[in-house]
Design brief:
Alcohol dehydrogenase, oxidoreductase, ADH-like_C, 6-stranded parallel β-sheet, single chain, Quinone Oxidoreductase, Chain A, domain 1, Rossmann fold, ADH-like_N, globular, 309 residues, alpha/beta, GroES-like_sf
Amino acid sequence: MSRSIYLAADGSLSITTIPEPYTPSGSQSLVSVKYSGINRCDLNFFHLGLHSYTTGFEFAGIVTSPGPDSPFSIGDAVCGISPISIPQQSSSGTHQDLVLAESSLTYKIPPGIDFKEASSLPMSLQTAADAIFNVLGTSLPAANLSGTSAAGRAILIWGGATAVGVSAIQLAKLAGFNPIFATASPRNHAALQALGATHVFDYASTTVTSAIRAAALELGVPLATAFDTIGSGLHVPGADPSTTSPALVRRCLSSDETPRLVCTLPVQDDPSFGFCNSYRPEGSTGAMGGPQDPEFPVRLRKVVAYVLG
């Protein structure tokens, strides 16, 4: 018997009981969940028409029963995310005692990381990796990933202190971007510099865009690449388009090069911005039914496996 948090058809949440245990098949594993990560999509997917399932998309726990083709063994400490499907399957919801984990979305927890930390790691890491190595097409030779070299190139991480931003700064450093500009509240500047950001700016300053642009010009490095981890002001009725975070990011650029931009939300009024995802199903169709490069899920798995390996 397993307890779960259930998202009902009316958008309400309740604790329910699942009487029968799930049985893993193929490469799946049954995982005893120690911690599950809380994300906005736990509730927001209701507005996309997803409901009547056990919610939750991030977990850390112990393998209790591997499927016949699972790469994991009983007792393995693992973390991962659940797939997104229409309709969504309760067996993969992470806000429950036992979850069926897909091997392609599950990783062994590295030494030194506890279950609590691991439960909030996969989604932000995969989102940042998708942005930098898929949407922006950056190479990572150490993980056998081809693409555009980041060596000698500047990047801006807007929202550096978010969970995705923290991962993005470290991945940008790993890829070889330099300098790495980031925005955050002043109290987070030192922490982000310790992670690899070379210059950090107060996002709330009225001069933040001109300060970033001036810093890039002073360094003599064109700034044409940016990752907006927030997407603030987007899809807000009546919002001034010039004050959204993608618009602010645009004003930071200091190069005539073709911009390489990505955001965690679709930027409908600026096609220069790509849209990153935490989940890339195998094949040429994305999680929500749109087209995707079939290499994206392969590249994403390589990056995350390398980072956590």
